[in-house]
Design goal:
about 350 residues; alpha/beta; Rossmann fold; 2 domains; six-stranded parallel beta sheet; 8 strands; about 40% helix; binds thiamine diphosphate; binds magnesium ion
Length: about 350
């Protein structure tokens, strides 16, 4: 049953370039197209504002996802409400697409306890910072859902670097063997901070790895929101129909620093970044929709303004949270905390001026 689908070498694509490359079509209504565009712009606005908030000292170190929005919005759009999302730090704001308040995610980046949420309420697990450790979580969740007859699919998002981790291997093996209704969604942005994808594997593509786990591997243009949507929709149907997991490799090139703490200029291919920025995913979809008369300039303005307003309100709400008790840092780890904790906490309070 193992097979690489369907475009060996090439990447699945729907959106054309308005010139030689023709547009494909997907089975979405005009309203759904607009909803998907709204999701894309919301994530873009979240990301761009977050970089500004970081520069202003209002949030901490931030993992930029500029031009990763199509992978996130396109795949999430293919899910049902009952399906669960297991994000990494790169998809920190994906919960917004489920109605999670912006203030909550901004609080997370402020290191504030208001940044935690109940995963069950939104179908979105906590943001995973350790690389790939959420892959077994998602797969276990999917398998458990199947045992319970819940008909839920779980999707785990991770990067190219994550495919070298033991936890990825364990999760993928488990998913294949137990036929779990899981989607392993790899954002291949070709960098793990400064380590290139060529140092992660000698395989021709990351999707090739799927063969070894007994699941289909699909390669898709990560900047094409409609191709991502279609590939994920097929994976969801396969999972829900009892045919097990799919590995999706969405290919892009990281066009922003790894995070606000990174200086990529010493390792990245600037020309390639420039190319990627010119062909970034929000503009690509915007031009596609306009070619089909599905989007007007007035709607673009309105949707952008909505996103900005949501962020303005979100950061105001996050900043209105009373400061967290530093004691929380020391709680919930030990039943009998070591005596040194008392001194550490006292010192922390002194440093914070409390
Ligand atoms: C287990 C573990 N090892 C190392 C790190 C440090 N680290 C943070 S991000 C990162 C790179 C991950 O790259 P990739 O999986 O390609 O995801 P991307 O950041 O490109 O989305 C590393 C090594 C970590 N967070 N967790
Ligand atoms: Mg990467």
């Amino acid at each position: 049953m193992s097979k690489v689908l369907p475009a060996e070498g090439g990447l699945r694509r729907v959106i054309g370039d308005g010139h030689e490359l023709p547009d494909g079509e997907v089975d979405l209504t005009p309203e759904q197209h607009l909803d998907l565009y709204r999701d894309l712009v919301l994530l873009r606005t979240y990301d761009e504002r977050s970089v500004v908030y970081h520069r202003q000292g209002r949030i901490g170190t931030y993992a930029i996802f500029w031009n990763h929005e199509a992978m996130q919005a396109g795949s999430a759009f293919a899910l049902e409400e009952r399906d669960w999302i297991f994000p990494s730090y790169r998809e920190s704001a994906i919960g917004l697409l489920r109605g999670l308040p912006a203030s909550t995610v901004l609080s997370w980046w402020r290191g504030h306890p208001a940044g935690w949420w109940n995963p069950e309420k939104w179908g979105v697990a906590s943001i995973c910072v350790p690389i790939a450790t959420h892959v077994p979580h998602a797969v276990g969740f999917a398998w458990g859902s199947r045992l319970k007859g819940d008909d839920r699919v779980a999707i785990a998002y991770f990067g190219d670097g994550a495919t070298s981790e033991g936890a990825f291997h364990e999760g993928a093996t488990f998913a294949g063997v137990f036929n779990a209704p899981a989607i392993l969604f790899c954002n291949n942005n070709q960098w793990a901070i400064s380590t290139p994808v060529s140092a992660q594997t000698a395989a021709a593509t990351l999707a090739d790895k799927a063969i070894g786990y007994g699941m289909p591997g699909v390669r898709v243009d990560g900047g094409d929101v409609l191709a991502v949507y279609e590939a994920t929709r097929e994976a969801v149907a396969r999972a829900r129909g009892g045919d097990g997991p799919t590995f999706i490799e969405a290919v892009t090139y990281r066009a922003a620093p790894h995070a606000t703490a990174d200086d990529p200029s010493i390792y990245i291919d600037e020309e390639r970044v420039e190319e990627e920025r010119e062909n970034e995913c929000v503009g690509r979809y915007e031009r596609y929709l306009k070619r089909f008369d599905l989007l007007t300039d007035a709607q673009v303005e309105e949707i952008r303004a909505e996103g900005l307003e949501l962020m303005r309100a979100g950061i105001a709400e996050a900043e209105a949270e009373p400061p967290a008790d530093p004691g929380l840092v020391f709680e919930h780890a030990f039943a009998d905390p070591p005596a040194s904790f008392r001194d550490d906490l006292a010192e922390l309070r002194r440093i914070l001026g409390g």
